[in-house]
Amino acid sequence: MKQYMKDNLPLFIFVSVLFVIGVVFGAVMVNALSLEQRTEMTRHLGSFFHEINEGIEIDSGQSFSQAFGMHMKWILLIWLFGLSIIGLPLILVLDFLKGVLIGFTVGYLVGQMSWKGMLFALVAVVPQNLIVIPAILFCSVAAMSFSIYIIKHRFMSRSGNIYQPFMRYTTITLVMGGFLLAAALLEGYFSQYMMKWVTPMLVGVYG
């Protein structure tokens, strides 16, 4: 695995930079929200905090299932895009969008609630994404590497069996799926308790 990372270091750097650009773009997008959009989002967020504070139970099993399903759909798309040449730019789009989603979420929370928003982001957004982000970027690099191999194999008359690279690519995706399972468990169970812990401090922000 270390050798694989070393061989694909330029791709790792490229997708990481693209992801960071997406995060910055997502954070900046918060400032582009209209007053009506901000008001609506604040209303929904305040309602969510009040429900948690009043002791309404969140179905951890359902949260886990939804999170795992979303993560697996994401890497399945990446895997499918990696099987074709035209899918190469779409992999980059997914990495950028993942950054935008995270940047917007954290940017909005911090913009609305200052340090309390940062605290909520640390317990509700950050823990699982410490696993999700590297896993998705790893899948993206594997997909791009395989797609580039296809280009060389088909258009540059490179010899070699495509079966072994394909199996390595698929194995990496499955292993990352295992990490995403752990991330979904973290999101579905651990993060729920952490949110209950910090919510009393946040309810006051919304009255």
TrEMBL record:
Superkingdom of source: Bacteria
Keyword Cytoplasm: no
Keyword set includes Transmembrane: yes
InterPro entries reported in the protein's UniProt record: SpoIIM, SpoIIM-like
A Pfam family matched in the record: SpoIIM
Alphabetical keyword list: Membrane, Transmembrane, Transmembrane helix
Transmembrane parts of this sequence: 12-33, 74-94, 101-125, 131-151, 172-191
NCBIfam families in alphabetical order: spo_II_M
Protein name in the entry: Stage II sporulation protein M
Organism: Paenibacillus oryzisoli
